Amino acid sequence: MPTPPFAQLLRQLPAGVATLEGAELRFGFVNEAMRELVGAHSEGKPLAEHRGSLPESLPGVLSQVLASGKPYTAKACACGPLPGSKDCRYFDLAAEPYHDDRGRVTGLLLLALDVTAQEEARQQAHELALTTRHLDARLRVLTETAPLISFSLDAGGRVTYVSPQWYRFTGQPPTADLTAIWPLLIHPDDRLRVLYQAEAARHAGTGWNHEYRLRRFDGQYRWMLSRALPEVHLPDPPVFWHGALTEIHDQREVAEALRRGEAELRFLADSIPELIWTANAHGLIDYYNQYTTAYSGLTKDELGPTGWVSLLYPEEQPAAARAWVESVTHGTTFEGEYRMRRHDGVYRWHVVRARLLADASGPRWFGACTDIDEHYRLHQVLQTQYDELARAHHDLDTFVYAASHDLKQPTLNLRGLFHELSQAATFHDPDQAVMLRLVDDELSTLEHTLRDLAATVRSQRAQQEPVEVLDLELLLEEVLLGLRPQILHGNAEVEINVTEAPGLLYSRANLRSVAHNLVSNALKFAHPDRPARITLRSYLTPDDHQPVLEVRDNGLGMELDNPDNPTFQLFARQHTHIEGTGVGLYLVQRIVRSQGGHLTVSSTPGEGTTFTIYWTRPE
């Protein structure tokens, strides 16, 4: 087979080949690969004028190469963009001087080898190396600033890396042999377990997650959580384990305290002689104390999630279940009294209470069933006795009212007979006038006593009357109008000042009785040396705006043991020289207290008295 000519071989080379002749570096021979760089029809043209895609600085460099006669090579020169391409390509350029027969440099042989793929791979490798260094630096910053100790181990258990936190925590010098010193810092009670678990995990090619105590720089052992995972490159077995040590000492202590607290609470709940239970947010019971099982005779599984409802009296279960569902739905406190079946079949009364606790762990219900059977039955007995006493009291009031009413007529008859007797009959007794006056006084006392007894019973019955908003000034004017004869006879001055609190929510009959008794007492017990001056004033207390009525006089006054909480007894009197029965103040105090108010008195004998009535505050 004939050998192709040398020029033909050069033309077919994948590398660009060209000859540059003379000082002007004119193109001589140019193969096909070089034509892509310098363009077609480049033969005979100077390099400077027909550079094509070659670097701009190449003609000047090649001129120096021609002058020096020394070969030159440029690696990965950017050329382009080439025709038909938008991107540059990279070539290794080599310039080799060639000589004539006398040894003179007459030109250059220019070679261009396309190394675009290699250059792009090198650049990518460089960028990857930079990215890797950045990530490595970032990872080191993260591992060395995080509040944990990072470490790496090989398959043999040797420590290949540990973060600076290790040295700060343990106080060990950087020159310490980590593989040898690490096991010695583990608590003796944990050392064997930790070493065995770590070695077993390395042999199995798995990670680990365990807790142990590690000695700190101050000699204290602190609980640590050790986690590690293998670095896997399938199908080869792992050769490195990377992990972290996190201090969990405080969390362990808190968890232990919570565990002890929960155990103590359960012990306390089991010690209480009540049915204690807890339920989830849906109202399903998930805990019963021991007393519940002992009382019911059922196990916790037998009681189930609605155990206390199933223990109720059958007729009470539907209403209790509906009330419990409503409380769970709205999150309101549940409370009710029900009969609960004991293990022997006896039903005993209980108060069932449950409250909702909503915290970070979620809503939960806490309930208790308290045995009130004895209290309930005692309450029934007391209620029965109270009803009997109420009937007896009512009967007594009826008797007193009837007796006082029935005795009025005989009293009037005695008054008439005595009047006729005193006018028509004569006595030969020197004490006739005294005896007649004494009999007249006793008849008057009897009349007042019967009238006051009837008023007492009427006041008791009037306490049940409905309340209404009263015009205080108008009602007080009506009371003064009824007492006008006494006011005129005593030349008294009465002042009414109700501008601060003109209205009062109260029973009309009760308020009239209170005002009438206080004003009539002030007129009755006026000082003999001066006219009576009475002031009626109403106002609201500054703190809670409670309505107040103040009645002040300048009369005889009285002596009191407890002015802030006085007690006026029926028929008790301080000024016996003045006609009276001692019923008025008793009635006032009884009416005020029965309506939820209270009475205070300030008095100075010989100067006057001030009654202050604190009514119930209207809603």
TrEMBL record:
SMART domains: HATPase_c, PAC, PAS. Residues 261-332 form the PAS domain. Residues 402-619 form the Histidine kinase domain. CDD domains: HisKA (cd00082), PAS (cd00130). It is an enzyme of class 2 (transferase). It comes from the Bacteria. Residues 208-260, 334-384 form the PAC domain. Gene3D superfamilies: 1.10.287.130, Histidine kinase-like ATPase, C-terminal domain, PAS domain. Its EC number is 2.7.13.3. It catalyses: ATP + protein L-histidine = ADP + protein N-phospho-L-histidine. InterPro entries: HATPase_C_sf, HATPase_dom, His_kinase_dom, HisK_dim/P_dom, HisK_dim/P_sf, PAC, PAS, PAS-assoc_C. Pfam families: HATPase_c, PAS_3, PAS_4. Keywords: Kinase, Phosphoprotein, Transferase. This is histidine kinase.
